[in-house]
Design brief:
Layout lengths: L4 E7 L2 E8 L3 E6 L6 E6 L10 H6 L10 E7 L3 H4 L8 E5 L2 E5 L8 E9 L5 E10 L5 E11 L4 E5 L17 E2 L10 E3 L3 E5 L8 E5 L5 E6 L2 E6 L9 H4 L2 E6 L2 E7 L3 E3 L4 E11 L8 H12 L3
Length: 305
């Protein structure tokens, strides 16, 4: 017995969308472009994702449009390959409780993107599988890259491994990766022993980014009393893009991105690489500021399993 509903709808002026709901949360997936998940949230409440629709409508159709929502890229980031315009229709099907969105193969990269979305029958949980297939004639080294563009006004959390002492931990235990534009003196950053926090105040126009090998296998974003959590697999010893990042945070004045990456893989023609995220939406979670706040959030996430 399932309470999941699948229906065609329009959303925020975009026709040809599809809604997946279970009486607790709903998602809106675009059929006119993407694959993109435009909305995720409790039914009748705020969209956890950013909506950058005015800018998208003003951008020519043959250029990359930043719609917001959740999108699917492939790493490493390169201007010509990564910013392939995903403005054409995708094929949407729904069977056995799984919504599948398949884009046409990218004409300049030979990559084809597929999203499979499975909504929990009763709870605020979603399983999102990102599949990247090489349709080209030669092998390509890539990594699936999942980016959730969050609405501003909240704080993102990148957990750090457990801390130790100088006496017992003489060798490095973890790392942080910075970009050339990362400014650690920017007030949007808070560094604690337990986590790196990144505030999206919706004002500061200067972009900031940080990444890490996230062995804790989760990232979070707290806003308006809700906590968006994405859980994923971190493969110890695997080669990840961006100097070893399996998780990244990026912020600019109109959105904050919570990003996860799969290891790099060399895909032969016809081969596919998958990357799975498990999303949860928790209520009654305040934005973190202290070690106690982070400990409380970590405990809530541990209960998810």
């Amino acid at each position: 017995m399932t309470d999941i509903r699948f229906e065609q709808t329009s959303y925020a002026g975009w026709d040809g969308c599809y809604r997946l709901s279970n009486g607790v949360v709903d998602l809106i997936i675009s059929g006119g472009f993407g694959p993109r998940i435009l909305r995720f949230g409790f039914i009748g409440e705020q969209n956890e994702f950013a909506e950058v629709y005015d800018a998208a409508r003003a951008t020519p159709a043959d250029q990359f449009r930043l719609y917001g929502g959740h999108r699917f890229w492939h790493a490493p980031e390169q201007r010509g390959r990564t910013y392939y315009p995903d403005n054409t229709p995708v094929n949407i099907t729904f069977a056995d409780g799984i919504l599948t969105a398949v884009a046409d193969a990218e004409t300049t990269t030979g990559m084809q993107k597929t999203l499979q979305i499975s909504l929990d029958p009763t709870g605020a949980r979603v399983l999102v599988t990102h599949s990247l297939t090489n349709i080209d004639l030669w092998p390509v080294q890539v990594a699936p890259w999942a980016l959730s563009c969050m609405a501003v006004g909240g704080t993102a959390i990148l957990p750090l491994p457990p801390r130790g002492s100088h006496e017992t931990n003489l060798l490095p235990s973890s790392s942080l990766v910075l970009w050339a534009y990362t400014n650690l003196s920017d007030p949007c950053w808070t560094f604690t022993p337990e986590a790196v926090l990144l505030k999206a105040d919706g004002v500061n126009p200067m972009p900031q980014k940080i990444g890490a090998p996230v062995s804790q296998e989760w990232l979070g974003y707290a806003r308006g009393g809700n906590l968006f959590v994405k859980q994923f697999e971190h493969e110890s010893g695997a080669t990840y893009p961006d100097n070893g990042c399996s998780g990244e945070l990026f912020v600019i004045n109109y959105m904050l991105e919570v990003e996860t990456l799969a290891p790099l893989a060399t895909l032969a023609p016809g081969e596919t690489a998958d990357h799975v995220e498990s999303w949860s939406l928790l209520r009654d979670v305040a934005e973190p500021h202290t070690a106690a706040d982070i400990a409380s959030i970590t405990s809530r996430i541990a209960e998810l399993g």
